Amino acid sequence: MDQKRAALLTACCGAAIFIGVLMPWYSVSIEVPTGLEGRGGPWGQGLPSLNGTQGDFLGTPTLILGLAGGIAAALLRSGKTQGLPLNARQLALASLGTMGLAALLTVIDVTSHGKGVSSGPMNAGKSFGIYLTLLATLAGTYGAWVLTRNTPDAPGSPPASPPASPP
């Protein structure tokens, strides 16, 4: 994968993280029989679901880190790094670091909130948003890693290659 595609992947993943954090991460529903079972019931009563910024989730820092990594990658893709305090290599490393931290926080959320409950009339568990955020953070980290490997150290120099082994 070349530098432009890796930067585009990472920037798009930053946008997907923003969307994923604001989607439901955990939802609860309780079925409440209304006595209308013969007429299309029982009717379910849905409780509000929690997105990544609510409850004890780490969605807010994940959102900030994902956006920062995506913006850094978008700046590299557009080539508008002149005038910034970081050169292209440092910007790629910043994108990798922020995306990696966002992925770590999302993995912590996925693993620390149990498998959910499904007993009787109550169903509770993880929802679509947490899995979208997990996928976006992992893909964004991969894209930032490829971007880091393909970004030269200084303008005009070739990408860093591993040192040659002695004969």
What is the helix tally? 4
Poorly predicted runs of 5 or more residues: 38-45
Shape type: elongated
**β-strand amount:** 5-15%
Biggest sheet features: 5 strands, antiparallel
Summary?
This protein is of the alpha+beta class and 167 residues long. The protein contains four helices and five strands.
Provide structural commentary.
This protein is α+β, with helices and mostly antiparallel strands. The protein has one domain (3-30, 46-150). 53% of the residues lie in helices and 14% in strands. It is built from four helices and five strands, in the order αβββααββα. Strands 1, 2, 3, 4 and 5 form a five-stranded antiparallel sheet that branches. A hairpin with a 2-residue loop joins strand 4 and strand 5 (122-126). Helix 1 (3-22) runs antiparallel to helix 4 (128-150), helix 2 packs antiparallel against helix 3 (88-112) and helix 3 runs antiparallel to helix 4. The longest helix is centred in the middle third of the chain and has 25 residues, at 88-112. The protein is elongated. The chain starts with a helix and ends in a 17-residue tail after the last helix. The model is unreliable at 38-45 (pLDDT under 50).
List keywords for this structure.
5-stranded antiparallel sheet; 4 helices; 14% strand
Topology of this protein?
Layout: H1 3-22, E1 24-32, E2 43-46, E3 50-51, H2 59-78, H3 88-112, E4 117-119, E5 122-126, H4 128-150
Antiparallel strand pairs: 1-2, 1-3, 1-5, 4-5
Helix pairs in contact: 1-2, 1-4, 2-3, 2-4, 3-4
